[in-house]
Every structure is written in C-alpha cells, then in structure tokens.
Amino acid sequence: MLFFILRRFLIAIPVMFLIIAMAFFMMRIAPGGPFTSERKLSPEVEANMLAAYDLDKPLHIQFIKYVNGVLHGDFGPSYKYKDFSVNELIAIGAPVSIRIGLLAMFFAFAVGVPLGTLAALNQNSAIDYSVMGLAMTGITIPNFVVAPLLTLFFGVYWHLLPVAGWNDGAWNHMILPVFALSLPYIAYISRLTRGGMIEVLRSNYVRTARAKGLSEFVVVRRHAMRAGLMPLVSFIAPATAGIVSGSLVIEQIFGLPGIGGYFIKAALNRDYTLVMGVVILYAGLIITLNIVADVVYAVLDPKIKLGRA
Amino acid sequence: MVTLNTQAAIAKRIPEINADPIKGRSLWVDARHRLFRNKAAVISMVILGIILFLAIFADLLSPWSYEQIDEELWGAAAPSLDKFHIFGTDTIGLDLFIRTLYGARISLAVGVIATFVALTIGVFYGATAGFIGGKVDEVMMRIVDILYAMPFIFFVIILMVIFGRNIYLLFVALGAVQWLTMARIVRGQTLTIKGKEFIEAAEAAGVSRGKMIVRHIIPNVIGPVLVYITLTIPAVILEESFLSYLGLGVQAPMTSWGALIAEGKDEMEGAVWMLLFPAGFMAVTLFCFNFIGDGLRDALDPKDR
What we know:
heterodimer; A: about 300 residues; mainly alpha; MetI-like fold; 12 helices; B: about 300 residues
C-alpha cells in the first residue's frame, strides 16, 4: 500500500517538472515582455526593470532560479501587481476560490447522488426520464450561459439575489456562483450514480439482501450504494479539474476576487509569474487528487491488487 | 484423429463462424434502422441540418452583412421585421441574425476541424499502441495517463495569449487536447480485434504492420470512434466558446457564439435578445450533437440498454 502511494508520487514528480517547464518556456517564447505596454519607459529604466526581475539573464539560468524558487514555495514577484508577490496574490484569491469550489463540489454530490439513485430505483419511469433529461441539460448548456441567465432572473428581474460581487463572502452572494458552478457536475454525478446503481441493483447479493427481507432502504443504503458509488471515486479528480476551469468563467461573471479572475487578467497582461504560479498550483492540485482518487479506489475495491497497479 | 478433432472444433464453432459475416454486414444496416427509429436523434439531425443550412447561406438570407452597422439606430434594437433585424441588433447596430449565424460557422468549423485533429492523432496513436502491444503499449498508455492529469485548458489559454489568438492555432490546440480519450477507446477496440481470425489470416498472408493498422484495424474500430466523434464535436464547441467568452478565442471583427454570449451578458438588462439568441443557438446545437451521439451509441451497441 505504502509502496503504491509512494510510486504514484514518484511518477508525479517528473510530471510536475514537465508542467513547470512547459509553462515556463511557453511564456518565454512569447513576443513582447511584461513591460512592453508601458511605452514611456526609457531604455535605462527598462534595463533596470529587466535586471530587477532577472529577465536579462540567460533563459536556462532564469529557469533554474525559478524552479528553485518553486521548490521553496516561492513563485516570485508578480510583474503587474508591482507591490505583490505571486504568493501573496494567490493567498488573497485562494480563500474565495476554495470556498466556492468546495461548496460547489459538496453541493454537486449532495444533489447528484440522491438524484441518480432515485432515477436508478425508478428505471425507465417518468422520474428517471426527467432526472436524465435534467442531467442532459446540465451537461450540454455551459455555465457561462446558465450563470448570466440565473443572474438575469434572480438578480435583475426578481431582485432576490445580488447580481455580482463578493461582499466578504456573504451567503447570498455565494448562492448563484456555487449553483452555476456545480450544475454540470450535478448532471455528471447523477448520471454516473444512476449507471453504477442500476448495475449493482441487478446483482446477486442485492437480490439476496432483498430475499433476506431487509427493507428497501437498508438494501439501497447499506448494500447497493457501497458498490454503486464506486464510479464516483474516480470522478473526483476530473470533477475538480472541471470546477477549477469552470471557476475561471464563474469568477469573472460574478466578479469574485478569486484565483480564476487573477489568472485571466494575468494571461491578458502577460504577467508570466502569476500565470505560471496559478497553472502550477492547479496542476499540483489535480495531480494530487488523481493520486488520492486512485488510492481511495484501491482501498475500496477489493478487486484491485495494489502490487500490480 | 487430428482431423477429427479439428472438424469437431470447427463444427462447434460453425454458429460463430456463420454469425460473423452476417453480423458484420447487418450491423450497419441494423444500426441505421435503430438510429432512425430514435426520434430524438432524427429530430436532432434535422435541426442540425437546418442550422448548418442557415450558417452556410447566411449571407443570402439576410440583407445585412456581419460588419454592417445600421446607423439609423440608437443603441440595441429589439427583434423586429421592420428592417429585417429578426434577432434584433447589438448596441452598435450590428444585425444579430447574421452575427449569430457567423458565430455558428466558426463554432461548427472549430468543432469539426478540432475533432478531426483529435481523431487523426487519437486513432493512429491508439491503434499503434493496441496493435503492437507489450512494453510499447504500456509506455504509450502511461504517457496518455500522465497527459490526462494536465490542466490542458490552461495551456491552451497560454498558447492563445502567446500567439495572438490565431484562429487556426485554436483549432489545432483544441484538437490536441481532445485526442487522449480517442486514443484510449481505439486502443481498447484494437486489443479486442487483434485476437480475431481475420487478423491472424492477414498476418499469415504476410501483411506488413503499417498496412495491418491502416487496412484492418482502423476500419474495424470505426463504430465506437464514430460515437465519440459526435460527442467530441460539442465538447470542442463548448471549449471554443469558453475561450471566446473569456476574450481569449475568436477576435473581433470575427465572432463566435462564446464572444456573442459575452457581449450579450453585459447588455442583458437592456437587450436580453443579445444573450438569448446566441445562447439558444449554441444550446440547441450542443443538445443535438449529444442526442445524436447517444442515439448512435444505442444503435451501434444494442446490449448497452
């Protein structure tokens, strides 16, 4: 078990390095540095600025310095927000993004699992079809369409909820972003749950459980769900990746001061260090969650033998 | 004794052997029947056909061109038949009908081209890995696993930032993101096909590896690939509009659904049609592709449901 986890982490190291390298060199091939838009700079000042940020050094030295910094948890200074380091900007944005993301994730599972189970228990009924129809809608209509429509109705027409803004995380400011962000994942999760549950409900041990005279609730809750929800474990990592990229749009639409918003602004401003910092952060998050999902899966599923994995 | 045994073995397998060629031929016919019985899929095909027709003949259908500003207007005009602004105009007086259809062109083109890129890479990669097998397969698939973990959309964003939001690059970049699943599907299929008799026969006849992949493996994995294509197109359309929405995709004066939705979102309080028409078109298109994909899957794999 320990060996398995260790191995997965060892594989993750070169992957992370590759991601850092790709992000670094891609940003550096870009024509135009971070200071090109400020045309008033005299050559001397520009040279000074480049020197201050080490941009005058050869590329490989910059890279080594950068990797060294990242290894020590330092993503360097932001090129655009002059008084801030990337770490500080991430520290400002992270609480907002994490809060929205976790809530969306929680909400997606809390709504998606019961919906999918309900559909599976009533296979091919009106309930099943309406849940699956809703899931189809959630998957096909992107959240940058849903979110404006939600604000239009709940914010502009009915004045029930604020249209945008963060307001230090007031609950009513979070409802719409969290809902819009979680919608596609409610859909995916209910689909996966339905599929898994249908398969399990047909299995022999569920029939045995029923034959023993257990109540339907116990059969479903104790016996069917354990195995039926397995597909969800491996969905955790892709869901996180999706919620992370979804948050780019959601944070922008609702004007939330999260990491996603910074990333878009940084990308448009060629703020190299900030862009790389966010990419590395998210890549690390996704890779870690992939490993966690694999491990959880291996622990839960007796069919998987760790030695070979 | 040997002959008797073989004969017995053959006799035992006659139903299989007989079933194979018949099944092989009728699968497609069957599949077509099943697909055309699926109302959702048929309706989706018709609707998609209409959208495609509108997109192609957009210029003939509207008196306005997509860069032509109606200068008599102040601000966004609501949909009306007066001057044939049937979807209304945006805030500077551009006709929204023609712009929505130009958006459709871009979105559909991105969908098809990027999917084609993904298809090409994925099919060859997957077929090669599955066919060669062994260590090569293991390494190739481990690479796919690793790439899966990468936050690709971020790299596409970086690419777009660096290379000035070039639309052709966008096509390729989005396609390059989507080939991983394709490769996995094709590899799985290839592995199952590899054991079949006709492959052994071809091998015995001395067909080269490359030819084997192109002539025998790829044609036989086409079913699941077809399903995945219909599901990749909407995924790519979605990603393109996601980028355009953020201002990182298609640039003015060209437009796409994502860009139009972004404009519409800013004006929705006063000019809700600017949001509704592009969003509606995109949603309908995505629905259609998904229904067709589901229909195809059911049609090609009747066991599934």
